[in-house]
Amino acid sequence: MNYNEVGFRHLEAGNYELAAQAFNDAIEENPKDPTAYVNLGTLLQSMNDADRALRFYDRALMIDNTFASAYYAKGALFFAADQLVEAEESLRAALLYGLDDADLHFMLGMTYQKLGDPVRGLPRLQRASELNGVDIEIAFQYGLALAQNEKLEEAVEMFEHVLMLDETHTDARYNYAIALAFLGQQEACYAELEAVLAYQPEHALARDAKAKMDALLKQAD
Length: 221
What we know:
By secondary structure, the chain is mainly alpha-helical. 79% of the residues lie in helices and 0% in strands.
């Protein structure tokens, strides 16, 4: 029996006590395997017990200080707590020790974004998008990062990709409109702002941007 697999089935079903028992059984069966310690930490984190979760992640790293999943789990915990410096350190270690999946790159990219470092955030979000091209939030955040790095034509393409996945994504459509404006496509920008307000009439940024464009059009008349 694979106790870790059993534990995750219980965790996904919301049966926390059974999940904890399965992960404890995995530890008792093989106390030198860091996997179950990370899994038990993940369970505790899902129960909002971050302090105990962190202790289990650290125990996993005491067994194997190159265990990428433990670094990723610590990074996710620190990110959720808005401890961005610690999150960056742990997530970067997970990357160093061989973890290469969309969630890691996305979280590391968002950490850099929140730290005010869009230059370092961009390649991580790009890699996340490469690994998972259908995740709407990854695509949207990558589009924002492209715009912040003044790669407006690429940002437009990414926002168009988001809108192909979800045409009602008003924040993507608003940022698409603004990028079009900076590229000199004022009519297209105005049309997209109208579309944003058709989907979400209370979208304040789109309403204000459209009002400014209306005022400019009146002045031109």
